[in-house]
Amino acid sequence: MPLLLIPLALLVLVLLWALLVPLGLVLRYRAGSARRRAVPWALGLAVALSLPSLLLFFAGAWTVGHWVEDATVFAAAGWLAGLATGVLGLALTRFEPTAGGLYYTPNRWLVLSLTLIVAARVAIGLWQAAHAWGDAPAAAWWPRQGGLFAVGGLLLGHYQAYALGLRRRLRRADLRG
């Protein structure tokens, strides 16, 4: 009888995961589109830690490039697109300089777009994993894994450009104030 509890526990974990992923995406959207205060030390830390993140990301893409065709190309293309998206995000962000500091509200549509891209990539990854266990040979689905690096590069590039732009905007606001 106790052995029957193991498959039941696994089923409960899968169902819990299936319920929590959409909830996590909704909460990520809400947090990403909320009004925030630009905190100087946090922005400095974000900018400082984004460089090691970038180096580790490209090292991982290069390493996986031995198995996934053009992984570094996908990573670089995604990162460049992310830099452009970060600059666009800064242009669409509403800034509010107050006596208490600089407040900003990211564009809801851009946050929604990035959240939907992540959700789509998770869904595509699950679809690819399901088909990998089927009749299809590995060559039919494995090269498409480079898209994971494109999405990762997009998010990393967006974060870097946005953090650098916020830091620059905060410094300009401090110089004026």
> How many extended strands?
3
Listing every helix as H and every strand as E from the N terminus to the C terminus, the arrangement reads HEHHEEHHH
Q: How large a portion of the residues is in β-strands, by DSSP E?
A: 5-15%
Strand order of the largest sheet: 1-3-2
Low-pLDDT residue spans: none
What is the percent of helical residues?
over 70%
Biggest beta sheet summary = 3 strands, antiparallel
Average of the residue pLDDT scores: 87
- Calculate the terminal CA-CA distance, rounded to whole Å: 71 Å
Structural class: mainly alpha
Total helices: the number is: 6
Indicate the overall shape: globular
User: How many whole angstroms does the radius of gyration measure?
Assistant: 20 Å
What are the SSEs and their pairings?
Elements: H1 2-32, E1 36-37, H2 40-64, H3 71-92, E2 94-98, E3 101-105, H4 108-132, H5 138-141, H6 146-176
Antiparallel strand pairs: 1-3, 2-3
Helix pairs in contact: 1-4, 2-3, 2-6, 3-6, 4-6
